[in-house]
Amino acid sequence: MGRAWFTLSIVLVLASATVAGARSPLPPGPRVALEVLQPAVEAPAELAPDAAVRKASVEGKYQTLLSVIRAPEDLQNYTAFNDYGLSYTATWAGYSGLPKGHWVYVYPHWYIWKTAGGGRVPGPAAPDAPLTKRAWGPEQATGEPDTDQAGDIVTAWASATQDGQDEWLDLEYAATVTPVAVIVHETFNPGAVSRVLAVRADTEEVEVWKGADPTPVGRGKGVSILPIQAEVATSRIKVFIDSTRVPGWNEIDAVGLIDQMGKTHWATRATASTTYAAR
Ligand SMILES: [Ca+2]
Ligand SMILES: [Ca+2]
Question: Quick check: 203 and 133 in contact, CB under 8 A?
Fold first, then answer.
């Protein structure tokens, strides 16, 4: 009995030593501890610059943007959005000489604002606010494809009329790439894409593809890959749609640029000749 008790005591002592030993390697400081204990936060998609600034203003709460710094690693400690408030920090994320101001994090940037005090702006959201995408608006052609079914579906861009005129989509991308192909997800009455222009940094427009849409007319939907022979560095393209030739709404869900490494870049901003969302 005595020996059993002694053995148990040893086991308990060893067990508590093990627990203490498991805790002790944690370095001090809450920031480091959080990194150790919390699972990594997955990086969300970056908003278009104008949408990000709008979000960072916290619905008009902050005014006069003083500085924007890039700090993707702060996602882990501040999450994708953080209204941090007033800070006097002059040095952060490798930047120095930062102004005093109100800090807001919208992944992957900090926005530093001069003044605070504005309230929630009354009234409806701006019509092109990407955070509230309009049904069939050109903004529905930004981002990754999100329309799985063929059909007249709100998550794709649709022109104002079915066949009233020929149409175009003007798409902007976060990065400048030299695309080897343009990929067009057509989700209703496909087959109408006829031409693609790329806008170079000097604003010159270059025709990079012209021809018959590889997705045949009559299909429910299709993914058209349009090869580009010319080497053009661009962050903006225009896709032309022969709407008058292909009956019905020729809806487009997403338009990507495939770069030389095979990576697809999705549009971050889009405008169009017309849109059903404006009706
Ligand atoms: Ca049409
Ligand atoms: Ca879409």
Answer: no
pLDDT tens profile 41-61: 788 999 988 889 889 999 888
Q: Is 11 left (phi over 0), alpha (psi -120 to 50) or beta?
A: alpha
Ligand 1 centroid distance, CA of 192 (Å): 8
pLDDT of residue 213: 98
What pLDDT digit, counting tens, does each position of 128-178 carry? 444 578 999 999 999 999 999 999 999 999 999 999 999 999 999 999 999
Q: Which residues pair with 157 in a beta bridge?
A: 252
What are the structural domains, with CATH classification, of the chain?
49-120 (no CATH), 138-278 (2.60.120.260)
Ligand 1 center from residue 119 Cα (angstroms): 44
Strands (E), the chain: 62-70, 81-87, 101-106, 109-116, 167-177, 181-188, 193-200, 205-210, 222-227, 234-241, 251-258, 264-266, 269-272
- pLDDT greater at residue 78 or residue 208: 208
Ligand 1 centroid distance, CA of 163 (Å): 4
Ligand that comes closest to the CA of residue 145: 2
Least distant ligand from the CA of 188? 1
CA of 170 to the centre of ligand 2 (A): 14
Q: How far is the CA of 82 from the centre of ligand 1 (A)?
A: 44
